[in-house]
Amino acid sequence: MSSPKIGFICGSLRTGSINQTLQQALMARVEKAGASCVELDLGSYDLPLFHGDLETPAAVKTLIADMTACDGIVMTTPEYNGSLPPLLKNAIDWTSTVDKTQFTHPVFGIASCSPGPMSGIMCMRQLNYILMRLGAEVVPTQVGTGNASKAFDAGGHLTAEPSASFADKMIAQVLTRISQKS
């Protein structure tokens, strides 16, 4: 079997986003674990605000195909007002109206980073619930990273504990489940 392909989706497009920093740190760890990575940048898909009366944009079908082509997907997301950011929720809503294979095929991991100590725990809980309702297999270990200003070294590597250990455990769980499904 070839190396597993892990897609990464970040719920933040903001330049300098701490969740993009976390995503890059996780991608480096996934590559070190022997898998290949692909970034599914939600900013590159032309997804209007979901509206049931709109015709499904071609970009939705492209995103579905890109997600389904992955063996695993790690979603890294900020927490806005105790909830998912609209960018990520919109992508989930659009894609789930067309198909569910993009949720039932890959194995999912969830991560969040916050400037304060709570590490996006409310958002991760909601994302886990939504993904599971759509039929996704979500590994049990999530990577919550609080106090972002102290969580990464100068090279952008995740160094804070227990987040770094959680990252390695989540990655191992995703890769193990992928190999078990093959």
Topology diagram in text:
Elements: E1 5-10, H1 18-32, E2 36-39, H2 58-68, E3 72-76, H3 86-96, H4 101-104, E4 107-113, H5 121-133, E5 137-138, E6 143-145, H6 163-181
Key features?
182 residues; alpha/beta; six-stranded parallel β-sheet; globular
Summarize the structure in words.
The protein is an alpha/beta fold. 40% of the residues lie in helices and 15% in strands. The protein has six helices and six strands; from the N terminus they run βαβαβααβαββα. It has helices at residues 18-32, 58-68, 86-96, 101-104, 121-133, 163-181, and strands at 5-10, 36-39, 72-76, 107-113, 137-138, 143-145. Strands 1, 2, 3, 4, 5 and 6 form a six-stranded parallel β-sheet that branches. α5 (121-133) links the parallel β4 and β5. The model has no long low-confidence stretch (mean pLDDT 96).
Number of helices: 6
Tell me about the largest β-sheet.
Answer: 6 strands, parallel
Number of strands: 6
Query: What is the chain-wise order of helices and strands?
Result: EHEHEHHEHEEH
Rounded mean pLDDT is 96
Low-confidence stretches: none
Helix content: 40-55%
Global geometry? globular
Q: Whole-Å distance between the termini?
A: 8 Å
Structural class: alpha/beta
Give the percentage of residues in beta strands.
5-15%
Radius of gyration: 15 Å
